[in-house]
Specification:
The protein is an alpha/beta fold. Helix content is 38%, strand content 17%. Helix 8 crosses helix 9.
């Protein structure tokens, strides 16, 4: 079903973009990141790709370049089997003074069917895990189901890390599907750990929820989502299906400079939604990186 669905998405996505144009204010406020600002993301880029590594290698903190990039990290818990349940891990970075929560992503060929099949229907978040949220908030059913598999395990590990470290700063990271899970985590964890400070950094983030969800994220979550050049994954599921990105995009250009793209789904050609008007203009390989020299995926877990 992947490629017939992909064709449908691209055609409808093209119609959608034809009716959308960036505001003048949005175009004027796009700004370049400095070298120092870009470099500040690099430890978290390595943490995001580390989530592709096996729980055993993470608990031993022996995953090659990824682990070596953050040598003071102290793992607390890790789990998942990488098949039915995505890998995840929680640990302490005493250098950055933050607790890190990482979620495994998937390669673009695997995530496309998930994004366009029946699981792309929107559902309300589970009231047991997400009590008292506005009933208008809808999210991707497949992402919500995947998050629910590990939510309580991650919560327990984060609480343990807070107790052991004395830290209350928590950073959530992930790439692709992992970025979507990290974004849902950024809603779930604060409901259960009041008083902690959270930030979320996602790479190649697909659209996760509807307009009400995007608005909730804008008001309640410190989010940065980084999109690499013509990566097609951030452009799906389509807005014509009722999905919307929250604000916080950083878009890597063809010359590898980074731009801050303000607002939700900025359609300026310098930003992801405007740059990739349909999936045939997108790239599978751009989804994996580089993000300031860091590649994502299982292949990075050794060496």
């Amino acid at each position: 079903m992947a490629f017939p669905g992909l064709l449908l998405l691209s055609l409808l996505g093209s119609l959608e973009l034809a009716h959308a144009a960036p505001s003048l204010d949005a175009r004027q406020s796009i700004a370049a990141l400095s070298r120092a600002q870009i470099s500040a993301f690099k430890p978290f880029s390595f943490y995001a790709t580390t989530a592709y590594c096996s729980p055993a290698s993470i608990l031993a903190w022996s995953c090659g370049t990824n682990c070596n990039a953050n040598p003071t990290f102290h793992p607390i818990a890790a789990g998942g089997d990488g098949v039915d349940v995505q890998f995840w891990y929680v640990g302490i970075d005493p250098t950055l003074k933050t607790i890190v929560v990482g979620h495994q992503g998937t390669n673009p060929e695997a995530i496309i069917p998930l994004l366009i099949d029946g699981d792309a229907l929107q559902i309300r978040l589970d009231a047991t895990l997400f009590p008292n949220l506005n009933s208008t908030i809808g999210v991707h059913a497949g992402f919500a189901d995947e998050h629910a598999k590990t939510a309580t395990l991650v919560l327990a590990a984060v609480k343990s890390a807070m107790t052991k470290s004395g830290l209350n700063d928590i950073t959530l990271v992930g790439h692709s599907l992992g970025a979507a899970l990290a974004l849902l985590e950024s809603v779930y964890l604060p409901l259960n750990i009041p008083g902690a400070t959270f930030k979320t950094i996602g790479y190649g983030l697909p659209r996760v929820g509807n307009q009400a969800f995007a608005d909730f994220i804008d008001k309640n979550v410190q989010l940065t989502h980084i999109n690499n050049r013509q990566d097609l994954v951030p452009t799906i599921p389509g807005r014509f299906l009722g999905f919307h990105h929250p604000q916080g995009e950083k878009h890597i250009q063809d010359d590898l400079s980074w731009l801050d793209c303000p607002g939700q789904d900025n359609t300026d050609k310098k930003c992801s939604t405007g740059d990739v008007s349909n999936v045939f203009e997108g790239s599978f390989s751009n989804h994996l990186g580089p993000y300031d020299g860091v590649m994502m995926g299982t292949a990075t877990c050794s060496g």
